[in-house]
Fold this sequence. Notes:
Blueprint: H1 4-19, H2 25-39, E1 44-48, E2 65-68, E3 75-83, E4 89-106, E5 121-127, H3 139-142, E6 146-147, E7 162-163, E8 166-168, E9 173-179, E10 185-191, E11 195-196, E12 200-205, E13 211-218, E14 221-225
Parallel strand pairs: 9-14
Antiparallel strand pairs: 1-4, 2-3, 3-4, 4-5, 6-7, 8-11, 9-10, 10-12, 12-13, 13-14
Amino acid sequence: MPRLPALLLLLFTALTARAETIQSLAAIDTAVHDFVAAAIDGDSEFTQGRLDPRLRLAPCTTPLALRFSREPRGGPNAVEVRCTGAQPWSLYVTVDIARYAEVVVATRALTRGTVIQAGDVALARRRVSGTRMDYLSDVASAVGRVAARIVPADTILGAGNVMLPLLVKRGDEVVLASVGGAISVKVKATALKNGALGERVTVRNLGSKRVVEGTVGGDGLVVVQSGAVL
């Protein structure tokens, strides 16, 4: 009867031989982790899906090839891992990339139409991956904007819930000004659409009845380039 050390040696040899015929899942996990970590920036974090421990793959005799299923901009994604060796195989490992940024958030609940004051907002680090709206990153840029809907406290502010105040409203009488040349021309017109500072709007000249397009330049002011037919 073999002695105990000899039995242990046989068992170790058998386990080692078996391991050499199966791809290391730990090696795949490490390769995916390093691949994702190198691809994302310092303001991002990620969680990685677990491989099924029952998975049995042929050992890869070539370096593993990895690629994202889509651009790693944030949110759910997957990494394709391919072996191109003598016994090729491929699999996908899920990853969730969380991108963070300093963004403007509401410090209190805002009702629709509220003109935002400095005390209503603050900067905070928040996850922005998966956020469909553009977010504001400067408190000064939020002050003076108007809540477009009810905004709960601690909500990220952006194009989806705040807007610039309307300086021109549809139906209002406005000043249509032609600027940029030696002669400045100003006439009265009717706004045909709403507009905030810097937005393009159409107006109707009250005198000529001509419809022209200009840029909102101030409260009740629409500007067109010099030489435009008014």
